[in-house]
């Protein structure tokens, strides 16, 4: 098993989740490595959290969000009350790793498609349902990402 040291994170390649944004031998990750190695390793057909993993990988690559920042995002950070995806979000200082707010763009076509697929999957699982049609019928304060599904209930990251 190959290990990468990324800032303060120790991540194993080939485990249930493989890191993105890693610098391999001093070079940045290439798109072919993302699409030909990382995505297939982490989004197998049989793995129940493959939608989540693909979204996490693409958010790290296309928005430069760090995993700790993604883990504290809520549904309302990506979905407007009328159910449309937000194209520009200002990451608040309280959620930013360095305590400074910054703009985050969600305009990449592939990323938007994956976000839509992930939200459709949440709706299919009936995760964090909310009365009314706002926020696609999801609780706007619910975490966007979850760690696991236990007893048909999603469990959010404990940050």
Keywords:
alpha+beta, 159 residues, two-stranded antiparallel sheet, 6 strands, single chain
Task: Record the SSE blueprint.
Layout: E1 3-6, E2 9-12, H1 31-42, H2 50-63, H3 67-71, H4 75-78, E3 88-91, E4 102-105, H5 109-125, E5 146-150, E6 153-156
Antiparallel strand pairs: 1-2, 3-4, 5-6
Can you describe this structure?
The protein has 5 helices and 6 strands, in the order ββααααββαββ. Helices cover 33% and strands 16% of the residues. The strands form 3 sheets. Strands 1-2 form a two-stranded antiparallel sheet. A two-stranded antiparallel ribbon has the order 3-4. Mean pLDDT is 77; it is low at 1-23. By secondary structure, the chain is an alpha+beta fold. It has a domain at 46-156.
Strand content: 15-25%
Rg = 16 Å
Number of helices: 5
List SSEs in N-to-C order: EEHHHHEEHEE
User: What would the principal axes of the Cα set say about the shape?
Assistant: globular
Mean pLDDT over all positions: 77
- Count of extended strands: 6
Distance between the termini: 27 Å
Quaternary structure type: single chain
> Helix coverage percent of residues?
25-40%
Main sheet properties: 2 strands, antiparallel
Strand order of the largest sheet: 1-2
Structural category is alpha+beta
Which spans have pLDDT < 50 for at least 5 consecutive residues? 1-23
